[in-house]
Design a protein that fits this description.
This protein is α/β, with parallel strands linked by helices and about 240 residues long. The chain has 2 domains: about 140 residues, Rossmann fold (3-Layer(aba) Sandwich), CATH 3.40.50.1000; about 70 residues, DNA polymerase, domain 1. It is built from 8 helices and 8 strands. The strands form 2 sheets. It has a 6-stranded parallel sheet with strand order 5-4-1-6-7-8, sandwiched between helices. Helix 1 packs across helix 4 and helix 3 packs across helix 4. The mean pLDDT is about 90.
């Protein structure tokens, strides 16, 4: 018999063993620190700063794309900067972000409690993000959630990033779980598209950084408004 959560979502994750989570916009709100680091970069280059709201619309494809968007002034990059200029700006940004890595970054509501519950129920969990890997573990440790994850994959750990399915498939291989036993949870089209291409079911959260678009338009298998609702979708 089909089961439903209190919001009417079908509880379709009856036989899952592993859950992959995006980081920025899903587990953490990192936009304030990313915007601060990006504007420090712009200042160093003699350019005008951007509002935090603008930067929120640019997050999700990794540091290189974020910096490219800042240099071009648009999310839709029609013509990027030359490689030398981008390399210089990216180096400044990486150092600026390292210095600000968790000044104003926060967990979204219910994240720690939900992860604790899922781990106690026996689910294996991993972080699969486009964020550069050198920042991932320090953030998880500073926010006291590192203990819940058996694996972390950053955006530079593999040749391709989300929305390519490679990171999700690699995570399954490393966790020794089948795609059919795994679910991807994320806030953006990158996460949902990557899951579809991997043949994996997915959950979309509505509160993240999906470029101003409703995550439901990507047709994930379930949509939640609060992180805590995720636990209700899983049987176990």
């Amino acid at each position: 018999m089909e089961r439903f959560d209190p919001k009417g979502n079908a509880v379709m994750f009856e036989t899952k063993k592993a859950i992959l989570f995006d980081l920025d916009g899903t587990l953490i709100d990192s936009a304030p620190d990313l915007a601060s680091a990006l504007n420090a970069t712009m200042k160093a280059l003699g350019r005008m700063p951007y509002s935090e709201e603008t930067v929120r619309g640019w997050v999700g494809n990794g540091a290189r794309v974020l910096v490219t968007r800042a240099l071009s002034g648009s999310r839709e990059i029609t013509e990027g900067p030359d490689e030398k200029a981008l390399k210089e700006a990216l180096a400044i940004f990486m150092e600026a972000y390292r210095e600000r890595i968790c000044e104003r970054t926060l967990l979204y509501p219910d994240v720690r409690e939900t992860l604790k519950s899922l781990k106690k129920r026996g689910f294996t969990m991993a972080v699969v993000t486009n964020k550069p890997s050198l920042f991932v573990k320090p953030i998880l440790e500073k926010l006291a959630i590192a203990e819940f994850f058996a694996l972390t994959l950053g955006g530079d750990d593999l040749p391709r990033k989300k929305p390519d399915p490679m990171p999700l498939l690699s995570a399954c291989e490393r966790l020794e779980t089948r795609v059919e036993e795994t679910v991807m949870v994320g806030d953006s089209s990158n996460d949902i598209v990557a899951a579809k291409r991997a043949g994996m079911q997915s959950v979309g959260v509505t509160y993240g950084y999906n470029y101003g678009e409703e995550i439901a338009k990507q047709h994930p298998d379930a949509v939640v408004e609060r992180f805590g609702e995720i636990a209700e979708l899983f049987h176990g």
